[in-house]
Write a structure and sequence with these properties.
Helix content is 39%, strand content 12%. With 190 residues, the chain is of the alpha/beta class. The relative contact order is 0.18. The C terminus is likely disordered.
């Protein structure tokens, strides 16, 4: 009787602020190699800042709806709080997630820490990084530029449901008008 191939579960860590089409392609690529994918939603304690505008729960909702729309069910979403102690960080992550055999990351420190703990580590594939970038998408949302084509439909819906567009605009630095020595705005009628 032929033995069943050993199951391989993989871990992908990211902030997913927001989950975009580049992330979706990474997930699809990893799931070609792995049986189940554990997606660690990093920096789970941060929200309502320009770099981390969405809560862990909102990111969980974005990812789960996007993957459901793609027909995936072989994944686990786990919020992971930053602890800022590299010596115990991998132990912290391992304690929060189901067992896994392989880690996907492009972060050099994450790679080193997991390799030092004996894990197989692979680079995450990159897909049009200049376009599919959380920083770029957040900038576009805040400035009123087109952004919905850069995220899965379900993610755009979640961002609209939670009024994420207004949140990002409120978090963005407002244009400042010039002020002359008297304190009056230059170009204003006095």
């Amino acid at each position: 009787m032929a033995s069943r191939p050993k199951k391989k579960d993989c871990l992908l860590l990211g902030r997913f602020q927001p989950f975009h089409k580049g992330h979706l392609e990474v997930v699809k690529e990893i799931l070609r190699d792995c049986d189940d994918l554990i997606i660690g939603i990093g920096s789970a304690q941060y929200s309502h800042t320009l770099d981390n505008p969405f809560t862990a729960g909102e990111r969980h909702l974005m990812i789960s709806r996007a993957l459901r729309d793609e027909g995936y069910s072989n994944y686990f979403l786990v919020p992971i709080v930053d602890i800022n102690r590299y010596a115990i960080w991998t132990s912290h992550v391992v304690s929060m997630v189901p067992p896994f055999q392989k880690v996907y990351t492009n972060n050099p420190l994450t790679r080193r820490l997991f390799e030092e703990d004996g894990y197989e580590v692979a680079s995450s594939p990159m897909f049009n990084r200049s376009l599919y970038s959380g920083t770029e998408i957040r900038r576009r949302i805040a400035s009123g530029e087109d952004w919905k084509h850069l995220v899965p439909r379900a993610v755009a819906e979640v961002i609209e449901e939670i009024d994420g567009v207004s949140r990002l605009r409120d978090l963005s630095p407002q244009p400042r008008r010039e002020v002359d020595e008297s304190g009056a705005g230059i170009g204003e009628d006095s």
